[in-house]
């Protein structure tokens, strides 16, 4: 299976030599689960879009420092691309900004939350329901987060599969082929720690201190990666596109 990665944000320049990019993190995370997966990245942030929704078998949308409410031209184009992809029943999975722009594209609302920054390791309750791709998930999972924005109004037909008191709509699903998550399963501890240290000036002291302390908590990212791969690769009925 070929997974197309829609790169909506660049890793901070100061961290690129060590950590490279968000697409490289996804390739490492998902490739460790299924070595047969192949990847291609389109940096939509820089107006590099696929020629067709069929240029990949499924799509991952990365995180970004931007807010979807900025309504930059590339964001508007990306929203249409996502609507087309969802309509064609191709698998789509969004992370952080990807979670937010997918919700926006399908009719939801995203704002800069009054709750402030969600950073460090956060714990989420998981509702598997009839979602076979979550069948092996534990009732809770812990994943590194780094966000201020949140989805506050759900698109019609969206279901919630992960939530916390801080982020009630942390995991969303739209039918059989589109889903998303607010935190960052691709962020391992070294990157989350480096990002927290570099962005400490943005965070209240108590929030930064708590986030740094939370890094001692084991995370569920490698287990959750299996669920993402299962979601992306399971058989579906596709419409002609």
From TrEMBL:
GO CC term, one of those recorded: cytosol
SUPFAM superfamilies: Class I glutamine amidotransferase-like
Pfam families noted in UniProt: GATase
Signal peptide start and end residues: none
Alphabetized Gene3D superfamilies for the sequence: 3.40.50.880
InterPro entries, per database record: ChyE-like, Class_I_gatase-like, GATASE
All residue ranges annotated as the Glutamine amidotransferase domain in the record: 53-189
Protein name: GMP synthase
Organism (species): Thalassospira lohafexi
Species classification: Bacteria, Pseudomonadati, Pseudomonadota, Alphaproteobacteria, Rhodospirillales
């Amino acid at each position: 299976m070929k997974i197309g990665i829609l790169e909506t944000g660049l890793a901070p320049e100061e961290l690129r030599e060590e950590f490279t990019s968000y697409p490289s993190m996804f390739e490492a995370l998902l490739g460790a689960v299924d070595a047969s997966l192949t990847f291609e990245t389109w940096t939509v942030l820089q107006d590099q879009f696929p020629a067709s929704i069929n240029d990949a078998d499924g799509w991952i949308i990365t995180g970004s420092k931007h807010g979807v409410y900025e309504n930059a031209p590339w964001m508007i184009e990306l929203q249409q691309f996502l609507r087309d992809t969802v309509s064609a029943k191709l698998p789509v999975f969004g992370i952080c900004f990807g979670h937010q722009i997918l919700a926006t594209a399908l009719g939801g609302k995203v704002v800069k939350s009054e709750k402030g920054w969600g950073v460090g390791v956060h714990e989420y309750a998981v509702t598997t329901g009839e979602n076979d791709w979550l069948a092996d998930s534990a009732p809770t999972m812990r994943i590194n987060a780094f966000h201020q924005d949140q989805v506050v109004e759900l698109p019609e037909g969206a279901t919630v599969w992960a939530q916390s008191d801080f982020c009630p709509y942390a995991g969303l699903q739209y039918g059989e082929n589109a889903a998303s998550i607010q935190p960052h399963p691709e962020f391992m501890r070294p990157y989350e720690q480096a990002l927290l240290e570099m962005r400490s000036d943005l965070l209240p002291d108590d929030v930064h201190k708590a986030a740094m302390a939370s890094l001692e908590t084991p995370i569920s990212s490698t287990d959750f990666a299996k669920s993402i791969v299962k979601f992306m690769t399971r058989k579906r009925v596709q419409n002609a596109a």
